[in-house]
Amino acid sequence: MSSESTAESSTVNTYGIRGFPARCVCGTKTTIYTSETNKNLGRPFFRCHTRRKTHLFKWVEDAVYEEVQDALPKIVLLEAKLNKEKSDIEDLKGVVTELMEEVVRTKTEVKRCKVMMTILFVIMCVIIIVLVVSLM
Ligand SMILES: [Zn+2]
Q1: Which keywords, in A-to-Z order, does the entry hold (predicted)?
Q2: Which of 22, 78, 91, 121 has its CA 20 to 30 A from that of 38?
Q3: What is the distance in A from the centroid of ligand 1 to the CA of 135?
Q4: Distance from the CA of 72 to the center of ligand 1, in angstroms?
Q5: Which of 92, 9, 103, 12 has the alpha carbon at shortest distance from 60?
């Protein structure tokens, strides 16, 4: 923020630029100056570098107010989006829990199948041994 002494005009020339004016309508960058007049002592304002009376002049507090005003609807949308995301996360947690239960059930079933296969293998071996012995 520049603190150089300026005799700012009491006329606000925003040219409809909302929020922080990066540039004046003439294309020149704006700078923040601090008022040193008795009426507005210490009050910051944006002004065109050219400092011409008809160029941009805007109080910083007005720009901040507009920035906040413009941001509020976006914040409401972001809050709604955040709540939707939270809801989706809760749904996904439910899906993960169901999948984990499915994995446990499947593991138990696979163990049972392995035991059955082992028993069948042993039975087949016994049958083959009995057949081979009976044929000898
Ligand atoms: Zn200008």
Answers
A1: Coiled coil, Membrane, Metal-binding, Transmembrane, Transmembrane helix, Zinc, Zinc-finger
A2: 22
A3: 112
A4: 29
A5: 12
